[in-house]
Design brief:
elongated; Lipid/polyisoprenoid-bd_YceI; signal; TTHA0802/YceI-like_sf; 179 residues; 2 helices; YceI family protein
Length: 179
Amino acid sequence: MRKIIIMPMLLASFIVFSQEKIVTKSAAITFEASVPSFQPVAGTNSNVTFVFNPATGEVASLALMKGFQFEMALMEEHFNENYMETDKYPKAIFRGQIERFDIKSLTEDYKDYIIKGKLELHGKSKDIKATAKITKTGPRITIISDFDVNASEFSIPIPSLIKYKLDDRVKIQIIAVLK
């Protein structure tokens, strides 16, 4: 009798714990802080870790700041040494929740969602509200999120000599393809 009760309970616990997170280490973050009439200031990091829990709608991402690549090597050097101070602040972390997320409602058409969470960058932490488009094609889930942050809110130093060439408002996009 005891075996009859224990076996279904054991199987049920495996089902509960099988709701695993999906992880990719090849999500991409692109940012742009360009001002019209000047050379574009943009960087891309294609080695971002992105974690998604489809059961709860929780998301998290980690980007190593030295992973951002630029069109010009000099921009990359200034980004790492002067602005982001990557030796002191090596990573950016976002943890959030997709509002009203239901995995069963996903289709091949993109559906709009709101993600609320916290962005930790340059030693500061700030609440973020971002829009996201999410689709599911077979086993693959794609999440595309866009949001803006102000460099000044994260105490990112921009020398007055070039302040007119950089926008304080930085446009950020993250793309995660999860399988």
